Structure formats: structure tokens, C-alpha cells
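Attaching the record inline, Q. Sequence:
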Amino acid sequence: MNRITIATLASILLLFILGCNDTSTSTKEIFNGFALQPVNFLNKKVYIPSNYTKTNLDELGEMLTQNPDLNKLDKMNYKFATSSYDQSGNVPVLYQDSIVNTNSIWFLPGAYTPINKGLVNEFVNATERQFLKPAEQQGVSFDRLEAKFITQHSLKAIKVKYQLKTENSTRYFTQFIITKNLETYSMVVLHDYNEDFQKILKSL
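Structure, as predicted:
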């Protein structure tokens, strides 16, 4: 994987996806306790919690700037979301939690990129060098919680998960780079609690 590809993937902020056939029964079992809604991404049906509503970067930016509780983590997330769009040219598909509006799920298609276990450390290093280390200068500290390679039938994924902290707030950032059926997606979950929705992968 070349540096340009790594840089693009590492800066992408988006969220929650994956292609599947009609797996609503197994998906609902896996998401026990959540009311679900089907959404479409790249002509695939994906199930996400029903309290998430579709939005876009402009609406998200307006919400953040008008929010009196706007903090450094929200500013950072929005900055890198717009940056990833500018760099890749791909329009992210965004879903925002209608109950806790700082929680969000992002989807972004990417160019097909074969991935393997050997790329995990390279991806982690790129993510921390380009995204998290600069954030420390803005008063954001981070702890890496997970960095692993996932395989499931024809699906391969790299998962990185971090706890982000400022003096007054804590957020969780999880990113999946997923390759399946000669397609590559980025999937990001931003959440106030330690929830990354990885369980959806089990239904694919």
C-alpha cells in the first residue's frame, strides 16, 4: 500500500457500513436492544440504529458552530472530515445520533486496496502521525485501545480504536478499513461511550 493510499485512508472520517444481502434477522439478533433502520450505501443494505438520521458536512458544521458546548474534539473531527473530503473527492455519507448529536456514523467509498495483517502497524503509524499527534498540540490526548486485523469469509478489515481526551471531555474514535468483493470502504464511529458497532460485521 503506497504512502498516498495510506494517507488518504488514515485521514478519512466516516462511518458504519458494510455490504450484505438480506440479513435483517441475524443483524437484529446481533444488535439486540437496538431498534434498527436499513440504509443504502453503494447499492448495499446496511442496518444502523434507528435514532441515527442522515446529514451532510454543511449541516454538521452548522450544528457544531452553533453548539455552545462545542469542544476541541468536535472541532477536530469536523476539520478532518472536511479534509478527507477535499483530499479524496468522495462524498461521505453521514448519520448523526438524534439523541446525542455528537455521536455519528460515517461512510466513505475508496479505491480498491488489497489489505493484509502486515499493514496494521503501517496504518496505525500513519493515523497517529497525521491525525492524532498533531491533535496533541491542540490539547487532545489519546490512548490506543485496539489495533487489529479482522477476517471473515471474503471480508478483510483493519480496525483501529482510540480514546480521545481533553480537559473536559472524552470521546471514542473507531475506524475500519474494509475490503470485500474487490471494493474498499472506510467506516468510522465517533461516540461518547465505548461503542464501536463492530458486531454488525458478524452478520455479513
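Residues 3-203 form a domain with the Protein Transport Mog1p; Chain A fold (CATH 3.40.1000.10). The chain has one domain: 3-203.

More tomorrow.
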